[in-house]
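Go through this chain for my students:
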Amino acid sequence: MFEHLLITRFNLKNPDWDLTKNKENLLDDSWMNERIELFKNYCFPSVINQSNNNFKWLLYFDSSTGEKFKIQIETLVKDHENIQIFYINGMPEFNNSILSYIKSHASSKPYLITSRIDNDDSISKYFIEEVQKQFNKQEFLAIDFIEGYTLQVEPEVILGKKEHIFNPFISLIEKNQDPKTVWHYSHTQWKKEPRVLQISGKRIWMSVIHQKNKVNEFDGYGNINWNSINKEFILSEAINTKITQNIIPFKNWWFRSLRNYLYVNMVLFSKKFKKAIGVYKVK
Protein backbone atom coordinates (compact mmCIF):
# COMPACT_ATOMS: atom_id res chain seq x y z
CA MET A 1 0.00 0.00 0.00
CA PHE A 2 2.81 2.43 0.83
CA GLU A 3 6.56 2.76 0.72
CA HIS A 4 8.17 4.34 3.78
CA LEU A 5 11.53 6.07 3.32
CA LEU A 6 13.60 7.52 6.15
CA ILE A 7 15.98 10.04 4.59
CA THR A 8 19.21 11.48 5.99
CA ARG A 9 21.67 13.87 4.41
CA PHE A 10 25.18 13.61 5.78
CA ASN A 11 27.92 15.82 4.36
CA LEU A 12 26.31 17.32 1.29
CA LYS A 13 28.00 20.55 0.32
CA ASN A 14 25.87 23.65 0.69
CA PRO A 15 27.21 27.11 -0.22
CA ASP A 16 25.14 28.68 2.58
CA TRP A 17 26.44 26.36 5.32
CA ASP A 18 30.17 26.33 6.05
CA LEU A 19 30.72 26.94 9.78
CA THR A 20 29.59 25.38 13.05
CA LYS A 21 28.09 27.50 15.85
CA ASN A 22 31.66 27.79 17.20
CA LYS A 23 32.90 29.19 13.86
CA GLU A 24 34.75 25.99 12.98
CA ASN A 25 34.90 24.56 9.47
CA LEU A 26 32.21 22.14 8.36
CA LEU A 27 32.68 19.06 6.16
CA ASP A 28 36.48 18.80 6.52
CA ASP A 29 38.14 15.60 7.78
CA SER A 30 37.95 16.68 11.42
CA TRP A 31 34.21 17.38 11.07
CA MET A 32 33.65 14.04 9.32
CA ASN A 33 35.54 12.07 11.97
CA GLU A 34 33.45 13.57 14.74
CA ARG A 35 30.18 13.34 12.78
CA ILE A 36 30.69 9.66 11.99
CA GLU A 37 31.28 8.98 15.68
CA LEU A 38 28.05 10.82 16.53
CA PHE A 39 26.24 8.86 13.83
CA LYS A 40 27.57 5.51 15.08
CA ASN A 41 26.74 6.25 18.71
CA TYR A 42 23.40 8.09 18.55
CA CYS A 43 21.62 7.93 15.20
CA PHE A 44 22.53 4.55 13.73
CA PRO A 45 21.67 2.33 16.74
CA SER A 46 18.36 4.10 17.26
CA VAL A 47 17.31 3.47 13.65
CA ILE A 48 18.43 -0.15 13.25
CA ASN A 49 16.58 -1.09 16.46
CA GLN A 50 13.13 -0.03 15.25
CA SER A 51 10.17 -2.15 16.34
CA ASN A 52 8.84 -1.91 12.76
CA ASN A 53 11.35 -2.61 10.00
CA ASN A 54 8.97 -1.94 7.11
CA PHE A 55 10.98 1.03 5.82
CA LYS A 56 14.11 1.87 3.88
CA TRP A 57 16.77 4.27 5.08
CA LEU A 58 18.40 6.42 2.41
CA LEU A 59 21.75 7.98 3.38
CA TYR A 60 23.14 10.76 1.19
CA PHE A 61 26.84 11.60 1.11
CA ASP A 62 28.73 14.08 -1.00
CA SER A 63 30.58 12.69 -4.02
CA SER A 64 33.75 14.25 -2.60
CA THR A 65 33.63 11.98 0.48
CA GLY A 66 37.07 10.53 1.17
CA GLU A 67 37.69 6.82 0.62
CA LYS A 68 38.45 6.14 4.29
CA PHE A 69 35.06 7.55 5.27
CA LYS A 70 33.29 5.56 2.58
CA ILE A 71 34.85 2.38 3.94
CA GLN A 72 33.75 3.22 7.50
CA ILE A 73 30.16 3.92 6.49
CA GLU A 74 29.81 0.99 4.12
CA THR A 75 31.26 -1.38 6.71
CA LEU A 76 28.83 -0.06 9.30
CA VAL A 77 25.71 -0.63 7.17
CA LYS A 78 26.70 -3.72 5.19
CA ASP A 79 24.51 -6.13 7.19
CA HIS A 80 21.38 -4.01 6.88
CA GLU A 81 19.58 -4.61 3.60
CA ASN A 82 17.10 -1.77 4.15
CA ILE A 83 19.87 0.87 4.16
CA GLN A 84 20.90 2.45 0.86
CA ILE A 85 23.91 4.74 0.40
CA PHE A 86 24.16 7.44 -2.29
CA TYR A 87 27.04 9.71 -3.29
CA ILE A 88 25.85 12.85 -5.03
CA ASN A 89 27.18 16.26 -6.00
CA GLY A 90 26.02 18.35 -3.05
CA MET A 91 22.63 19.72 -2.02
CA PRO A 92 21.64 20.83 -5.57
CA GLU A 93 21.23 17.13 -6.51
CA PHE A 94 19.58 16.00 -3.27
CA ASN A 95 15.87 16.28 -4.10
CA ASN A 96 16.27 14.96 -7.63
CA SER A 97 18.22 11.97 -6.36
CA ILE A 98 15.44 11.12 -3.89
CA LEU A 99 12.79 11.42 -6.62
CA SER A 100 14.86 9.28 -8.98
CA TYR A 101 15.09 6.55 -6.34
CA ILE A 102 11.33 6.66 -5.79
CA LYS A 103 10.66 6.40 -9.51
CA SER A 104 12.99 3.42 -9.84
CA HIS A 105 12.21 1.51 -6.64
CA ALA A 106 8.84 2.61 -5.26
CA SER A 107 6.67 3.56 -8.22
CA SER A 108 4.41 0.52 -7.77
CA LYS A 109 3.16 1.64 -4.35
CA PRO A 110 0.15 3.99 -4.48
CA TYR A 111 1.22 5.91 -1.37
CA LEU A 112 4.49 7.22 -0.07
CA ILE A 113 5.65 8.10 3.43
CA THR A 114 8.90 10.01 3.80
CA SER A 115 10.46 10.87 7.14
CA ARG A 116 13.60 12.76 7.97
CA ILE A 117 16.27 12.43 10.64
CA ASP A 118 19.54 14.32 10.99
CA ASN A 119 22.66 12.19 11.20
CA ASP A 120 23.46 13.24 14.78
CA ASP A 121 19.99 12.77 16.33
CA SER A 122 18.10 9.77 17.70
CA ILE A 123 14.60 8.36 17.47
CA SER A 124 12.52 6.11 19.71
CA LYS A 125 12.39 2.49 18.63
CA TYR A 126 8.66 3.13 18.06
CA PHE A 127 9.20 6.09 15.70
CA ILE A 128 8.53 4.26 12.42
CA GLU A 129 5.62 2.40 14.00
CA GLU A 130 4.00 5.59 15.28
CA VAL A 131 4.40 7.40 11.96
CA GLN A 132 2.82 4.51 10.07
CA LYS A 133 -0.09 4.44 12.53
CA GLN A 134 -1.05 7.85 11.11
CA PHE A 135 -1.44 6.47 7.58
CA ASN A 136 -4.99 6.62 6.27
CA LYS A 137 -4.57 7.00 2.52
CA GLN A 138 -4.05 10.75 2.81
CA GLU A 139 -3.39 12.55 -0.45
CA PHE A 140 -0.97 14.96 1.21
CA LEU A 141 -0.43 15.39 4.95
CA ALA A 142 2.65 16.24 6.99
CA ILE A 143 2.91 14.48 10.36
CA ASP A 144 4.59 16.52 13.09
CA PHE A 145 5.13 14.82 16.46
CA ILE A 146 5.90 17.95 18.45
CA GLU A 147 7.09 16.36 21.72
CA GLY A 148 10.45 14.73 22.30
CA TYR A 149 13.59 14.92 24.35
CA THR A 150 16.84 16.79 24.01
CA LEU A 151 20.18 15.45 25.18
CA GLN A 152 23.28 17.60 25.62
CA VAL A 153 26.38 15.39 25.48
CA GLU A 154 29.17 17.93 25.84
CA PRO A 155 30.65 19.68 27.73
CA GLU A 156 28.11 18.41 30.31
CA VAL A 157 25.55 15.64 29.98
CA ILE A 158 22.02 16.98 30.51
CA LEU A 159 18.69 15.43 29.50
CA GLY A 160 15.34 17.18 29.29
CA LYS A 161 11.95 17.25 27.61
CA LYS A 162 11.32 19.47 24.62
CA GLU A 163 8.44 20.66 22.46
CA HIS A 164 9.28 21.68 18.92
CA ILE A 165 6.74 22.45 16.22
CA PHE A 166 7.89 21.95 12.59
CA ASN A 167 10.86 19.97 13.88
CA PRO A 168 13.61 18.02 12.06
CA PHE A 169 11.76 14.70 12.55
CA ILE A 170 8.73 15.61 10.45
CA SER A 171 7.14 13.09 8.04
CA LEU A 172 4.97 13.38 4.94
CA ILE A 173 2.23 11.03 3.76
CA GLU A 174 1.22 11.56 0.12
CA LYS A 175 -0.10 9.88 -2.99
CA ASN A 176 2.76 8.45 -4.99
CA GLN A 177 1.94 10.50 -8.08
CA ASP A 178 4.49 13.23 -8.78
CA PRO A 179 5.58 13.06 -5.10
CA LYS A 180 7.18 16.00 -3.30
CA THR A 181 8.70 14.14 -0.26
CA VAL A 182 9.33 15.59 3.18
CA TRP A 183 12.49 17.28 1.88
CA HIS A 184 10.42 19.44 -0.46
CA TYR A 185 10.72 22.05 2.31
CA SER A 186 13.34 22.53 4.97
CA HIS A 187 11.65 21.45 8.20
CA THR A 188 11.09 25.05 9.37
CA GLN A 189 9.30 25.93 6.14
CA TRP A 190 6.52 23.39 6.72
CA LYS A 191 4.95 26.20 8.72
CA LYS A 192 3.75 27.59 5.37
CA GLU A 193 1.85 24.40 4.52
CA PRO A 194 -1.78 24.16 5.78
CA ARG A 195 -1.87 20.35 5.51
CA VAL A 196 0.08 19.56 8.68
CA LEU A 197 -1.09 17.44 11.61
CA GLN A 198 0.55 18.23 14.95
CA ILE A 199 0.53 15.30 17.39
CA SER A 200 1.06 15.51 21.15
CA GLY A 201 1.28 12.86 23.83
CA LYS A 202 4.14 10.77 22.45
CA ARG A 203 7.83 11.62 22.82
CA ILE A 204 9.41 9.69 19.96
CA TRP A 205 12.50 11.74 19.05
CA MET A 206 15.60 13.07 20.76
CA SER A 207 17.74 15.93 19.50
CA VAL A 208 21.41 15.60 20.43
CA ILE A 209 23.29 18.78 21.33
CA HIS A 210 27.06 18.79 20.88
CA GLN A 211 29.90 21.19 20.10
CA LYS A 212 29.65 20.72 16.33
CA ASN A 213 26.00 21.68 15.95
CA LYS A 214 25.35 24.35 13.36
CA VAL A 215 22.89 26.30 15.52
CA ASN A 216 21.22 24.17 18.19
CA GLU A 217 21.53 24.95 21.89
CA PHE A 218 20.24 22.91 24.82
CA ASP A 219 16.79 24.12 25.88
CA GLY A 220 15.41 21.03 27.59
CA TYR A 221 13.51 21.03 30.85
CA GLY A 222 12.20 18.66 33.50
CA ASN A 223 13.55 15.91 35.72
CA ILE A 224 14.01 12.94 33.36
CA ASN A 225 15.64 9.71 34.52
CA TRP A 226 17.77 8.36 31.67
CA ASN A 227 17.18 4.79 32.82
CA SER A 228 13.44 5.34 32.34
CA ILE A 229 13.82 5.94 28.59
CA ASN A 230 17.05 4.20 27.53
CA LYS A 231 15.22 0.99 26.59
CA GLU A 232 13.23 3.01 24.07
CA PHE A 233 16.03 5.24 22.78
CA ILE A 234 18.72 2.73 21.84
CA LEU A 235 22.20 4.25 21.74
CA SER A 236 25.61 2.58 21.66
CA GLU A 237 26.62 0.73 24.81
CA ALA A 238 29.52 3.15 25.39
CA ILE A 239 27.29 6.21 25.20
CA ASN A 240 24.60 4.64 27.35
CA THR A 241 27.25 4.08 30.03
CA LYS A 242 28.61 7.59 29.62
CA ILE A 243 25.17 9.13 30.09
CA THR A 244 24.38 6.94 33.09
CA GLN A 245 27.63 7.82 34.82
CA ASN A 246 27.88 11.52 33.95
CA ILE A 247 24.37 12.95 33.69
CA ILE A 248 23.93 16.14 35.73
CA PRO A 249 21.42 15.73 38.60
CA PHE A 250 18.27 17.79 38.14
CA LYS A 251 18.90 19.64 41.41
CA ASN A 252 21.99 21.17 39.81
CA TRP A 253 20.11 22.77 36.92
CA TRP A 254 16.51 23.18 38.08
CA PHE A 255 16.55 26.95 37.58
CA ARG A 256 17.86 26.57 34.04
CA SER A 257 15.11 23.98 33.54
CA LEU A 258 12.48 26.52 34.61
CA ARG A 259 13.84 29.15 32.22
CA ASN A 260 13.93 26.61 29.40
CA TYR A 261 10.36 25.49 30.12
CA LEU A 262 9.10 29.06 29.87
CA TYR A 263 11.13 29.72 26.71
CA VAL A 264 10.13 26.50 24.90
CA ASN A 265 6.44 26.97 25.62
CA MET A 266 6.56 30.65 24.67
CA VAL A 267 8.07 29.72 21.28
CA LEU A 268 5.53 26.92 20.83
CA PHE A 269 2.59 29.21 21.61
CA SER A 270 3.98 31.93 19.34
CA LYS A 271 4.34 29.59 16.36
CA LYS A 272 0.90 28.06 16.85
CA PHE A 273 -0.66 31.52 17.14
CA LYS A 274 1.10 32.80 14.03
CA LYS A 275 -0.01 29.71 12.14
CA ALA A 276 -3.60 30.17 13.31
CA ILE A 277 -3.84 33.80 12.17
CA GLY A 278 -2.19 33.17 8.82
CA VAL A 279 1.22 34.80 9.33
CA TYR A 280 2.95 31.79 7.75
CA LYS A 281 0.81 31.56 4.63
CA VAL A 282 2.71 31.44 1.36
CA LYS A 283 2.57 34.89 -0.18
